[in-house]
Amino acid sequence: VPRVRCACGNPLSPPVALQANPKRNGQPWAAYQPSKVVAIAPSETTVDSFVIYDHQDHRWLERGRGAVPKPDKPVPPPPVTTPVPSANPPTGTATSAGPTPPATSSAPPTRKPTGPATHTPPASPSELPSEPPSETATEPYPATPTAPSSAPARTPYAPATPPPPPANPYSY
C-alpha cells in the first residue's frame, strides 16, 4: 500500500480541507488533471516490507520498513498475467447483415500457452488507457520470498523520454 513522505522522510500530515473554489496558478504540466488529484491517508495496516524494482541492476528487491532497514533481499518478479480473450465480441462491431450461427462446440479450447506472454508498450503516453485494466492474478505471491534462479527476463515499461518537470510543482 503506497504511502507518501516528504523529501526529508517525515510522513505527510493529513490532508487539509481547501476553500470551496481553489485557485491554481502557473503553467500546468501536460498530464496534470485536477480531477485526478488524490489525497493520501494513513494505512490501516502496518507494512513491514516493500517490494521494489531496481531499474539499474534489473532486479526485484524486498526492503524492510524503517529509517535503517535491514539489507535488501532479492525476490522473484511478480507473475505476469495475460487477460483471457472474451468469448463474446464487443457490441457494435458486427459487420454481417444476418444473425451469427451458434458455435459448433461447447467445450473450451484445450490449447495452452507455450511461452511467456509478451507485451508491446504504447508508442507514446497519449496511447495509454485512461484507466488501468482490471487484473486478475493467476497465483498469489509467495508467503516467503525466495531468490530468483536468474535475472528477470523483462523490464517494466518506461517511456523513451520522460515528460518535462513542472515549472513549480507546489503551485496549483
Automatic annotation (TrEMBL):
It holds the Pfam family DUF6777. Residues 1-66 form the DUF6777 domain. Residues 74-88, 159-172 have a biased composition (Pro residues). Transmembrane segments: none annotated. Residues 1-29, 62-172 are annotated as: Disordered. It comes from the Bacteria. InterPro entries: DUF6777 (IPR046704). Residues 62-73 have a biased composition (Basic and acidic residues). Residues 89-109, 125-158 have a biased composition (Low complexity). This is DUF6777 domain-containing protein. It comes from Streptomyces katrae. The lineage of its organism: Bacteria, Bacillati, Actinomycetota, Actinomycetes, Kitasatosporales.
